[in-house]
Amino acid sequence: MVQKGPRPLVFFGPSGSGKSTLLKRLLKEYPDKFGFSVSHTTRNPRPGEKDGVHYHFTVKEDMIAAVERGEFIETATFSGNMYGTSKRAVEDVRRSGKTCILDIDIEGVKQIRRTDLDPLLVFIMPPSIEELERRLRARNTEEEDALKKRLEVATKEIEYGQEPGNCHITIVNENLDKAYAELKNFVSQNLKDNEPEPNASQE
Ligand SMILES: Nc1ncnc2c1ncn2[C@@H]1O[C@H](COP(=O)(O)OP(=O)(O)OP(=O)(O)O)[C@@H](O)[C@H]1O
């Protein structure tokens, strides 16, 4: 079945390559055009959190069963709680007329490619591993062990992203403004039914 609404826009690439930086800029410039899917979690709601808005709150047994039925694009466990993005949540954003933005790892990319969600795959590549390491160190968000692990995984992710057919565009994020211009150009070429119209006139 051909789905109505704009295709989901998937960002993937090594940790530190600049995915969040680029997608935040896109969301800031076009707040009405893009949206995020609502994730599922088995953790308890915090005060003020609404089911279906902040998360779809569920229990482990149900979530495991849904994962086994193939309903999830990706899942992860943090401090004993499961989190995940369901196909349904991505479809919901699409039905609202917005482009659903996803920032996922390559296992998630492999999963979403097996669905009928027809995603546009944007691979964000660092200029070099050395520069990636410099940026991760400057970001100062990881302990040394976690940083080393991210750099190890980065090589595999770069290999996957560079294999023909695994993405629709590779953006080398050397100069941020140039990388963002490439992203905007790709988006406006490929999401015609969701043509970005800036809410601010200055570019
Ligand atoms: N073109 C660029 N030049 C220099 N620094 C950059 C550039 N793009 C992003 N950065 C910086 O590099 C760091 C990593 O970027 P960001 O956090 O966006 O990466 P990410 O791919 O989202 O990482 P993660 O997967 O770990 O969330 C940030 O501190 C960001 O400000």
Descriptive report:
This protein has one domain (9-190): 3-Layer(aba) Sandwich (Rossmann fold). 40% of the residues lie in helices and 19% in strands. The chain has helices spanning 19-29, 60-68, 87-95, 106-113, 129-139, 144-162, 176-190, and strands spanning 9-12, 34-35, 40-41, 56-57, 72-78, 81-86, 99-103, 120-125, 169-172. The chain has a 5-stranded parallel sheet, sandwiched between helices. Helix 5 (129-139) packs antiparallel against helix 6. The longest helix is centred in the last third of the chain and has 19 residues, at 144-162. The relative contact order is 0.22. It binds adenosine-5'-triphosphate.
